[in-house]
Amino acid sequence: MKHTAFIGIGSNLGDRISLCQQATQKIAALPKTDLIQQSPLYETEPVVLPHQQKEKEPWFINGVVQIETNFEAKELLKNLQEIEGQMGRLRTDRWAPRIIDLDLLFFDSVVSSAPNLTLPHPEITKRRFVLQPLADIAPDWEHPLVKKLVRTLLKELEDRSQIKVHRSS
Asked: Is this structure's pTM higher than 0.70?
């Protein structure tokens, strides 16, 4: 059975754009998976904790892809983590800079709080760097918990962090 999933892609180390593009290609190459659409890439201000200095944290490149897959949610998450590992991601501090970050945002309209997998992703409604690219490709997708469309969530968002479409040169 085909499932619809949305995956957030981000990087703030190395050749960020190339890394996000490589991750998208690797996701599209997964067996039993079709890339349906992808958002533009955005350069986004990092979410900074009080002990960090904003001016020293590298900015992210972020985007979202929509796929259809025959994988179940836990299998898809395992595949995403394997892609991160292949690309050199080291799991350290939760908020540390990273070479690649792949987040399973939505999986159909599944609501789950299983160990190691919360669906929908709990930070979706709080983050401009997720909602903006998600709204570019799925403005009418309804968040199954808050029962609001992605475009409405973006409009109501309190996060005022800077975000700009990345223009390739």
From this structure: yes
